[in-house]
């Protein structure tokens, strides 16, 4: 990964709403990266934990405002807070089309949906880890109405946290995470439940393949249920693809699964991509990610909220 | 785990046929545990590697003879070797009913089927690891015709290698491993293949749940195909149970999977089990394992081949 020169315009402040595992980790990572971060959480203990990591605590937020709250709380997350009307607003929710539908009408081009592909089975501010985003992929949505300078400001936040930015539309994102996150949670649950039917002897003989295949069932069931139901259409479609694969003759199925793993390209090839929506989305569709940016591309041209 | 006093009768020698990852690791572990081990492999490089770990190389085998060869080679594994007609014969194959059907008629009560639940995606003598069996579960079959003193001699071999012995019938074993090993391999293949259909963006966003759920697709496809086809009936039944789970409403499915994980008992309770088939099988069915044995139970009573 090549981190390229930072832009010459000053980075805007960051406001983080919700200081649980994701928001608290992000705020701490950005403080460590030298960003000015203000955070807020309804829980005083979460505020205290963030303050101890150098996060300024307050309700007045501007620059890039990150909504790090559960999906059901997203619509009301800004209530009672003083948010700069010019601020760019992003979120960390695990589905993007529903959040876009909820926040888009009010925020318009100021809203940039995001989803960092990290987090653990743990949750809450006690699970805060400033290294949580290091090397993680962070999907960042580019809709037809997205203002590109705002998208770049959010991308910088993700890059400063140590992540790599994958450009995608909200719909593309939701289809992709259905295949690689939501359906895996359902398969893990089905595998564990079926092994439970098989009985204690089966569970006693469970070794690597079962432990790997069921690790995520340790996640909070309410969280997982909310996640798959919040992305019901794409998850149903992705599950159908899996069931279709399971109906193939086993030699074909096993070979097809192995081939996907074996075809994964070794290493990574640096590329320079023009800063336009079409080119960025093509990068994401090709399995690429943004790892930095050239100052020249934005020098003097960022009209963002910073 | 409480390792109890060893029996007062001398442990019989061990012969290991096939010195690849499993056989080579077992031979090395037993040498380290002070057992007298003779090994054989058709590959001179495998013989040399075993010899370097203190394994005597030869074709004359007695005591407990372990067939550590692939399933298709099992029936002919003893051809060309000089095996004591009183020897107890066991194997490490991943299915037990077909091997019992193959070896049982000729060997009768002298055959004790076994299956250590370990091994990695690697194979061959270069993947030898004397610690491979440490803490692993090792299923050991108790059929109506199994001679219990011979079963104990094989159990001692597994215990000496660092494993814990799970008593089961061959049919029970095959049903159990279908649920916790063979079906997980099929689900991992289906998940990987379906994500491949979803495309590079999906694979680029793949994080923990996908990596965990597809790790085993790195295994050799021919090995995996042989494994599931060699246990086709139980694997089909176990897969049907998984498909039945996947047809449930998602909140129910997620809760059921989580409950199996959450219900796993913390810790372990030492028990003493009489040395009879019914009691040992009950231990296995309850999810327990044999971790050692009292000398008194066998003192002077082992008519085995040692």
From TrEMBL, chains A, B:
UniProt-listed SUPFAM superfamilies: 6-phosphogluconate dehydrogenase C-terminal domain-like, NAD(P)-binding Rossmann-fold domains
Q: Ranges for the Prephenate/arogenate dehydrogenase domain?
A: 12-284
Question: What keywords would UniProt list here?
Answer: Oxidoreductase
Q: Which Pfam families did the record assign?
A: PDH_C, PDH_N
What biological process terms from GO does the record include?
tyrosine biosynthetic process
Family recorded in the similarity comment: Belongs to the prephenate/arogenate dehydrogenase family.
- Give the protein name, as stated in the record: Prephenate dehydrogenase
InterPro entries found in the cross-reference section = 6-PGluconate_DH-like_C_sf, D-isomer_DH_CS1, NAD(P)-bd_dom_sf, PDH_C, PDH_N, Preph/Arog_dehydrog, Prephen_DH
Q: Which PANTHER family match?
A: PREPHENATE DEHYDROGENASE, PREPHENATE DEHYDROGENASE [NADP(+)]
GO molecular function term, any single one:
NAD+ binding
Regions annotated as coiled coil = none
């Amino acid at each position: 990964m090549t981190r390229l020169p930072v832009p010459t315009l000053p980075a805007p402040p960051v406001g983080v709403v919700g200081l649980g595992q994701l928001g608290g980790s992000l705020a701490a990572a950005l403080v460590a990266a030298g960003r000015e971060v203000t955070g807020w959480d309804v829980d005083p203990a979460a505020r205290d934990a963030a303050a101890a990591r150098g996060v300024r605590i307050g309700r007045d937020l501007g620059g890039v405002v990150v909504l790090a709250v559960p999906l059901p709380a997203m619509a009301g997350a800004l209530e009672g807070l003083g948010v700069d009307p010019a601020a760019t607003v992003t979120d960390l929710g695990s589905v993007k089309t529903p959040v876009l539908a909820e926040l888009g009408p009010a925020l318009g081009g100021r809203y940039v949906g995001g989803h960092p592909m990290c987090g653990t089975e743990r949750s809450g501010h006690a699970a805060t880890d400033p290294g949580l985003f290091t090397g993680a992929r962070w999907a960042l949505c580019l809709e037809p109405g997205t203002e590109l300078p705002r998208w770049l400001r959010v991308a910088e936040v993700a890059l400063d946290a140590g992540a790599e930015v994958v450009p995608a539309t909200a719909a593309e994102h939701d289809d992709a995470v259905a295949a690689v996150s939501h359906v895996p949670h359902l398969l893990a649950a089905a595998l564990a439940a079926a092994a439970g039917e098989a009985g204690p002897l089966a569970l006693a003989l469970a070794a690597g393949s079962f432990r790997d295949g069921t690790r995520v069932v340790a996640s909070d069931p309410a969280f997982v249920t909310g996640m798959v139901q919040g992305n019901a259409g794409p998850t149903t479609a992705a599950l159908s693809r899996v069931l279709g694969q399971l109906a193939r003759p086993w030699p074909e199925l096993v070979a097809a699964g192995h081939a996907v793993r074996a075809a994964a390209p070794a290493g990574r090839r640096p590329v320079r991509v023009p800063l336009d929506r079409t080119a960025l989305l093509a990068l994401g569709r090709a399995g690429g990610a943004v790892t930095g940016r050239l100052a020249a591309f934005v020098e003097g041209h960022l009209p963002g909220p910073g």
